[in-house]
Amino acid sequence: MAVRDPVVKHQIRIAxxxxxxxxxxxxxxxxxxxxxxxxxxxxxxxxLELAPWLIAVFAQPFRILADGTRSxxxxxxxxxxIATGILVTAVHSCGLVSLTHxxxxxxxxxxxxxxxxxxxxxVLLVVGHPAENAxxxxxxxxxxxxISSFDPVRSS
Length: 156
Prior knowledge:
By secondary structure, the protein is α+β, with helices and mostly antiparallel strands. It has one domain (2-131): NADH Oxidase (3-Layer(aba) Sandwich). 40% of the residues lie in helices and 19% in strands. The chain has helices at 6-27, 30-37, 47-50, 76-93, 108-113, 144-147, and strands at residues 2-3, 53-59, 62-64, 70-72, 97-101, 120-128. A four-stranded antiparallel sheet has the order 1-2-6-5. A two-stranded antiparallel sheet has the order 3-4. Strand 3 (62-64) and strand 4 form a beta hairpin. It is globular, with a radius of gyration of 19 Å.
């Protein structure tokens, strides 16, 4: 669900920051906080209001049939993950940028956006043009050899 209404984005920010404050203060493991420290992230999320668009992506682990019964949706998480990756690529191909945001839990999105409870929030994409003063952390990437392996080519 794409959101541009400033009032709704403000509601999302307030709810997300509430979850983030709880996470940082009580639920986050020390190792997690240490890993995030170099990125300068904390519970303050002004970008949720500053960006022109928020895209809330939901998964449907099951659906409600016409007779009211539940039916599983197979490979929902995998399908939504693939679709989200394609969406992020499309956003970037259009000259925009996106930031994935995943406060936990994200059930507040169902309430604020009027989504049924059988939809599970998957990710909140923050979308727009990069800010002039945006700082991008130099995270670095592992070399291909560290993350993959290939069968040797055999001659016949």
